[in-house]
Amino acid sequence: MGKLFGTDGIRGVVNAGLDAQLAYQVGLAAAAVLRKEKGGERPVVTIGKDTRISSDVLEGALVAGLCSAGADVLHLGVFPTPAVAFATVDKAADAGVVISASHNPFEHNGIKIFNGRGVKLSDALENEIEDIILNGVEVPVVTHGDIGRVTYLDAKERERYLDHLVSTIDSDLAGLRIAVDCANGAASATAPALFARFPKLDCDIFYAEPDGVNINNGCGSTHLEALRERMKTGRYDLGLAFDGDADRFLAVDELGEPIDGDQIMAICGSDLMARGELPGNAVVATVMSNLGFRLFTKEHGMKLEITDVGDRNVLERMLEKGYALGGEQSGHTIFLKHATTGDGQLSALQLLQVLKKSGRRASELAAMCAVYPQMLINVPVADKAAKERIMASDALAKAVAGTEQSLGDRGRVLVRPSGTEALVRVMVEAAEDAEAREMAEALANVIKNL
After folding, report:
1. Residue burial 188-209, b: 16+ Cβ < 10 Å; e: rest
2. Is 55 a known active-site residue?
3. What's the pLDDT at 94?
4. Which is catalytic among the residues 55, 68, 102, 347?
């Protein structure tokens, strides 16, 4: 991991670590690296953003940097992360930039870069951009007619993206009634129009009125409480919840119970396998996937491959092995036949199609994959150096080993540093909630005292 780029781009609180000056430098450096990759030719870059109040500031600075170094920009406006990846490929651009901090509160923001294939930029190219910025390498700016141009793409690009999403299923979803939580984020710009494409689907849209500061505020995939309550009273078949940039999605069944990313993969993976569309009968998940999902794949004859945390790692394994389905418990689900990144709206359509064709209730489908009690505690730490020191601690290693011994085969322990925040994450799965909580809190206290 570099000093600027984490597991999901550059992240920070705006004007307290991430500011317009840094965004301008990223634009300059990215244009220089992309121009070198193209043998000196002018690069073309798409750029989209979520609804945070700071996104306009960072967007303006990034565009200024890109154009000052001679790159042309295709301006998408408020656009989901996977839609930017789609547009990058669709427009044969050399790269795509997303301004978003995903599920984080509005004061945070981030910069994520895709290559021309709609895949997150390689470590090597990220390192080149980082080196230019951190080492103060001067990037020549251009003048006269060499200055980059900005082209503002109209609603047709949104419609092309929606056309693509609709084409991934062959059901009209007739008769289903759904509640959709757009998190006051990027899905607000696309989800209402997407579900309107299905006139026989009864759809209620909520949290789709962004004001710059209400993104993810008590709503979205990381705050399911409001949607769960709505499901208990609204006679819906399924609730859908997106995060701020709509690259992840979680569901809520008709009883108000959550359906997590593992269960979504279990449901959709079983359907793909039954149709002969799951290469190697394999799915890719991360170390955070629940023990219940691991047991589900074993019992259903699926091959399960495990990667480090991050949809980037999942995608790399899928591309390497030729697999079709992978994702994270948090709701990043990749259907590689249709997308190069996690796409919440695409995943929602896949799940809705299975729900419609199966004729079963969402709660019945989710029950196929049990969820073991899991306690996750995020322990704040000072900085990256503190994370490294804590993870290398003998005291922590001893405490983890002791907990694992106590659990045996009835659960598991995972302690890892966050790739995007100053946190060490403690996860314990056990047969009972109280046991998982007690063990996780004990490990968290060990970390706090190091």
Report:
1. bbbbeebbeebeebbbebbbbe
2. no
3. 98
4. 102
